[in-house]
Amino acid sequence: MLTDQEKMNNALKDMLFHEESMGKKYADLAQQITDPKLQQMLQGMEMGAHNHYGTLSQKMTSLGIV
Questions:
Q1: pTM for this entry
Q2: What is the dihedral sign for C-alpha 8, 13, 14, 15?
């Protein structure tokens, strides 16, 4: 059985992986779409995922999670 700390570590690692995956998907889609407004929207979503990734990474570092 996992401890609460292990559950938190796993949850943060899962969130980190999710944000990285979504950022890549948004970037790929933005390159495939020709509509400038949609490209801009997807680029904004990619940036949001990148920012979330950075925030999660900082939090994980401060908690000693690798």
A1: 0.85
A2: positive
